[in-house]
Amino acid sequence: MRATLMYGAGDVRVEEIADPVLQQPTDAIVRVVRTCVCGSDLHPYHNVPAAEDGTQMGHEFLGVVEDLGPEVTGLKKGDLAVASFAFQDNTCDFCREGVQASCRHGGFFNTAQAEFVRVPQAAGTLVKLPVGEDSALLPSLLTLADVYGTGYHAAKRADVNPRTTVTVIGDGAVGLLAVLSARQLGAERIILMGRHKARTDLGREFGATDVVAERGEEGIARVRELTGGDGTHTVLEAVGYQEAYEQALGVVRAGGVISRVGVPQYDEGPIGWGMFGRNLTLTGGPAPVRAYIDQLLPDVLDGRVEPGKVFDRTVSLDEVPDGYRAMDRREALKVLVRP
Ligand SMILES: [Zn+2]
């Protein structure tokens, strides 16, 4: 099959590799119908050391079940299903407690930008979709694999509700879908911090009431100005750089919550009086998107929300290297791949 491999920073190639096969009785093999490039794929794209052997890429996909191990329940060959970006049994104690990304039998996909994917723990990972391969809903359904569930996780961890004001930091796909999620959870005041007008316009469509294009101290001052000097009850941080975390500290209201879903590209940061003195809570982490698929699916199926609007470019599998380039140069918000 053809698959996407990264050989080093900026070096993405699509090559022929061996087809995946069933390895465990709980595995399935899925033929990928849609996959995509994630903002988090850009971190290795910037800094992974050059290597002799390429590493397979991709963690978001939906596709058709081609083969099943004998212990996979609830699915049959020919089913169209979406996977969560982390696989899990969805039955262990951590899964039952809603932290599927910490499943005792789980792990993370890194093979999705390909024609076929081996899915471990298929019964707990794949969610059957009641639509056909030609459905116009596929882009929105694909966001359930990661970016929508991740944005939703940011809002859930922060306990966004009708009484909380919200700042979302980041106008990438996750930030925009954090806006959509905050709106779904009832937030009436949602300030989106982002600089790219096409993206922040989509953020307004998703429910942002204010857009702040300034960053750093200027951005903090602007959000405080918009909130009577106090900041917002919750801050959903969907970037991952330390500057974004410091910005979150600057715009959160005393007693408030900073919820991070951007993968942190730093190990140290301010946790002293600036946080302690104002009774702040820091939360967030890899989203247990499997926990949210069932509740987010109905609104996607009936068109009440269209999270798939974050995709603004579609490429073939062979064009995936162009897709990385376009996202890296911010020419594309999120790139959909049709193998
Ligand atoms: Zn589990």
UniProtKB/TrEMBL annotation:
Asked whether the keyword Cell membrane is assigned, the reply is no
Domain of life according to the entry = Bacteria
For this UniProt record, the keywords arranged alphabetically read as follows:
Metal-binding, Zinc
Identify the cofactor(s): Zn(2+)
Q: Which residues form the Alcohol dehydrogenase-like N-terminal domain?
A: 25-130
* Alcohol dehydrogenase-like C-terminal domain residues: 173-275
Pfam families named among the record's database cross-references: ADH_N (PF08240), ADH_zinc_N (PF00107)
A GO molecular function annotation here is: metal ion binding
| Residue ranges the record marks as coiled coil | none
PANTHER family for the chain: DEHYDROGENASE, ZINC-CONTAINING, PUTATIVE (AFU_ORTHOLOGUE AFUA_2G02810)-RELATED (PTHR42813:SF2), ZINC-TYPE ALCOHOL DEHYDROGENASE-LIKE (PTHR42813)
Entry protein name: IMP dehydrogenase
